[in-house]
Amino acid sequence: MQKGLLTILAITILAGTGLLMNSQSQEQNSFLEDKLMKEYQIWQQEHGKRYSQFENTFRFGIFKKNYDYVINHQKRFEAGLETYELGMNSLADLSVEEFEGIYLKWRYNNKQQSNEIFEGGKGIQIPEFVDLRNDGLVSAVQNQGNCGSCWAFSAVGSLESALRQSGVQNVELSEQELNDCTKGQEYDSDGCNGGFMFEAFEYASKNGIAIKSEYTYVAQDQECQSKKTKTRFTFNGYIRVESLNSQAYLEAASQHALSVGINASGINFQLYRKGIFSSKCDGKVESLNHAILNVGYAPDYYLLKNSWGLSWGEAGFIRFARITDKVGQCGVHQDVTYPIYKKNSSIIQ
Ligand SMILES: *[C@@H]1O[C@H](CO)[C@@H](O)[C@H](O)[C@H]1NC(C)=O
Ligand SMILES: *[C@@H]1O[C@H](CO)[C@@H](O)[C@H](O)[C@H]1NC(C)=O
């Protein structure tokens, strides 16, 4: 893949020099088209994508457009104009409009403001670098699939970290239960159409939450099946980190995985491959559209765990620029929560 990309890059530059005769460049074009088609087929195999002939032509068209975009971005990166790289990940055959429509359904909900708030600033010392993965506090990267359940994955990620902090290792909890069971009168969540982490924490504190193997993920909305499960973990509420307070954010992040909302719009986030993501974006509360998990920081970035599988970003993670703007990169300081788990509070039936 990498080698192929370089070949295409070389050809693109060659074609761009304008020194080729017309007929030669036509030959060159169809050669390029063939090479790209091969790249596309390899990519399809890698990501298990199969389409009808009609859709395949359409998808290939989008793939080509994204490929061009990635190559141009790569040139800018190599010229020192960008701090991060893009790549042809599993979302590379979606137009940016499709990507946003499928994956970015999450919205901010201000009903949650009444909860206990962590303000920080009490002069505590925090490390310069934190990566909770090194402390065994971060569970494996998951893939939400074609369902707008990012919020359930963000919530489960921080619930699992809270368990690990209490010495409960290797427990995976059920995103599907949160997806299916936080609809209706008491909760405002709407499954694959988006939901709320604070509601997930409230739900897991009131009802407990099943382990994943007893309530498996199917990436679509179902009736709530919590009654059929046996092994459940009950939590003890959650803490809200004060909005727009980078000091409180860091202090909380030095100890806990944090569920956060961000504005993930745009092709740069869609095709992010590695490096420090610094793409300009609107960080207003109304612009937040994706939920994700903060699991560390460094002087120049926050480390976030996404739920789009291992092929996206840095093996499922993204380093988000740590900027002085109050709202943080893409609004990351706006909506920040983490759950509480006290030992011995679980019901194991
Ligand atoms: C996210 O930021 C981008 C760049 O500023 C903006 O175009 C987009 O509208 C924002 N997303 C939302 C949902 O507001
Ligand atoms: C937690 O449960 C274990 C086993 O049931 C018990 O031995 C221990 O004392 C309990 N700890 C607390 C803090 O209640």
Q: Could you explain how this protein is built, in words?
A:
Keywords: Disulfide bond, Signal, Zymogen. Residues 40-99 form the Cathepsin propeptide inhibitor domain. It contains nine helices and 13 strands. It is of the alpha+beta class. The protein folds into two domains: 2-78; 96-348, Cathepsin B, Chain A (Alpha-Beta Complex), CATH 3.90.70. Strands 1, 2, 3, 6, 7, 8, 9, 10, 11 and 12 form a ten-stranded mixed β-sheet that branches. Strands 4-5-13 form a three-stranded antiparallel β-sheet. Strand 9 (290-298) and strand 10 (301-305) form a beta hairpin. Helix 1 packs antiparallel against helix 2 (22-47), helix 5 (150-165) packs across helix 6 and helix 5 packs across helix 7. The longest helix is centred in the N-terminal third of the chain and has 26 residues, at 22-47. The radius of gyration is 22 Å and the shape is globular. The site of one 2-acetamido-2-deoxy-beta-D-glucopyranose has 8 residues, from loops. One 2-acetamido-2-deoxy-beta-D-glucopyranose binds at residues 263, 265-266, 280-282, 287, 289.
Can you lay out the helices and strands and say which pair or pack?
Blueprint: H1 2-16, H2 22-47, H3 53-78, E1 84-86, H4 96-103, E2 117-118, E3 130-131, H5 150-165, H6 175-181, H7 197-206, E4 209-210, E5 231-233, E6 238-241, H8 246-253, E7 258-262, H9 267-270, E8 272-277, E9 290-298, E10 301-305, E11 317-321, E12 336-339, E13 347-348
Parallel strand pairs: 2-6, 8-11
Antiparallel strand pairs: 1-8, 3-9, 4-5, 5-13, 6-12, 7-9, 7-12, 9-10, 10-11
Helix pairs in contact: 1-2, 5-6, 5-7
Bound molecules: 2-acetamido-2-deoxy-beta-D-glucopyranose (2 copies).
Residues 263, 265-266, 280-282, 287, 289 line the site of one 2-acetamido-2-deoxy-beta-D-glucopyranose.
